[in-house]
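Reviewers asked in the last cycle whether our approach scales beyond single polypeptides. To address this, we selected a multi-component target totalling 213 residues and predicted its structure end to end. The input consisted of the following lines:
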Amino acid sequence: MGIKKNLEKLRNSIPKEITLVAVSKTKPISDILVAYESGQRIFGENKVQELEIKHTKLPSDIEWHMIGHLQSNKVKYIAPFISLIHAVDSLKLLKEINRRAKQNNRIINCLLQVHIASERTKFGFEINEINEILDESNKLENICIKGLMGMATFTEEKSQLNSEFTKINNLFKKIKNKKISTLSIGMSGDYELAINNGSTMIRIGSTIFGNRN
Ligand SMILES: *Cc1c(COP(=O)(O)O)cnc(C)c1O
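The resulting structure, written as structure tokens, was:
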């Protein structure tokens, strides 16, 4: 099936209120244009350099999301245009985003990544660190924390996925307010479970664009 069909099928299978981030990492400009032409405007990438290139080559009404691990020394390259940074996982990074946002006269929207997976390799804050980080981020004038982001363990074990998503959703429900209203959980393999667990934003790559090499 083609990208356009995949997108239509996906959109029709999820509630309207869910924000769909089309994850276009490793995919060519031509693929992104097909999705764009069928109405998709939010795209997610996980590499700074790729984001920069695609941002300059593609229409300016695209909202670009940085979904991958971000190093502080690379924030400056995306600060002028990024619309949401999903995986903020340290205060140091948050402060650097604030600094670069200020230089660009912008407020940059961020999500705090919460460590929910059993794998040690996945980044993110522990659940009990979030309140302190929220307090600290209130002092940063050019940052807006919009919510939380999580990545579940790479497994097909539904009960485990469920318990990991429940954990982050419980935290989300506690801190939720007018401004903190985004819960970014759910990828191609687990978005239905994520939506059942309160997801408001899903990040979908292979279901739309096909498998990556
Ligand atoms: C690649 C990626 C996705 C999308 O993965 P698919 O399984 O292709 O849908 C979502 N979130 C993050 C952080 C990713 O790196």
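The mean pLDDT is 96. We regard this as preliminary and will revisit it once experimental data from Aim 1 are available.
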